[in-house]
Amino acid sequence: MLFRGRKFFWGLVCLQVALTTTGHAEIVLHGTRVIYPSNAREITLQLSNNGTAPSLVQAWIDDGNAKSTPDETNVPFIITPPISRVEATKGQTLRVTALPTTSQLSQQQESIFWLNVLDIPPKPEGRTQQGQTTTTSNNFLQLAVRSRIKFFYRPIDLKENIDQLSDKVEWKINDQYLMIKNPTPFFLTITSIFQGSEGHKTDLLQQGLMIAPYSEDKIKLKNKNLADMSFVYINDYGGRVEHPIKF
Fold it and tell me: Which Pfam family, giving just one, matches this sequence (predicted)?
């Protein structure tokens, strides 16, 4: 079953009768984020089926609305193939092509979209009887599992260097809050902000924080000890890099 309408999409579930359940992701994306340079005609993405059975894969890009279906999205990119069958232990290449309407995106800063990959497993097989494999009855719940990662469109004429992003972040204290300013044209994803020395660190973030270009955010401090503070951000390769906070 492919998800084309909102009524059938949400829950990411193919429901027949909830007596037995199968639902674990076997399709794995190679990477945790995608960078699309503005001068690229297309880019390729790799995914693998780590399972023991084939999976049907549906891929699409949305503009930030996690509830949108493939038919509802309106983005300046297309994915080929949008639907594919990936055999067990095999891989699949997805090609992402920019449409001419990408010229309407900002050329002074990054734009963010989201890449979705829906893993639709096959109907489970029943027990083998007299040398034959029978299919399961209609009494089962089949779960389709969706992966969703960030997709950045990056203009090539940006004057800033992404490798200097961590040094450009501006930090200051305002009463009991730590103010974080991103003065660059890049999105900044922070996974942790540590306060305290090694062995006594406290993470001020309960969940990750993404700060848009030329924007700022704030978090509440645990205490007034500012001597040992650092933050962990995600680089272009999906790696987590710790960097000291300088006031």
Answer: PapD_C
Ranges of each domain in the chain: 6-154, 162-244
Alpha-carbon gap, residue 50 to 25, rounded angstroms: 9
Strand order of the sheet with strand 13-15?
13-15, 141-143, 21-22
Shortest CA distance to 172 belongs to which of 183, 188, 162, 185? 183
Side-chain half-sphere exposure of 22, counting CA atoms within 13 A: 18
Would strands 55-62 and 132-135 be described as parallel, antiparallel, or unpaired? unpaired
| Tens of pLDDT, residue by residue, the chain (247 residues) | 465 555 544 444 444 333 333 445 699 999 999 999 999 999 999 999 999 999 999 999 999 999 988 999 999 999 999 999 999 999 999 999 999 999 999 999 999 999 999 999 887 665 555 555 555 556 666 678 899 999 999 999 998 999 999 999 999 999 899 999 999 999 999 999 999 887 788 999 999 999 999 999 999 998 877 888 999 999 999 999 999 999 8
Nearest to 178 by CA among 208, 197, 205: 205
Taking every pair of C-alpha atoms in the chain, what is the biggest distance, in angstroms?
75
Domain 162-244, classified CATH 2.60.40.10, yes or no: yes
The CATH number of the structural domain formed by 6-154 is 2.60.40.10
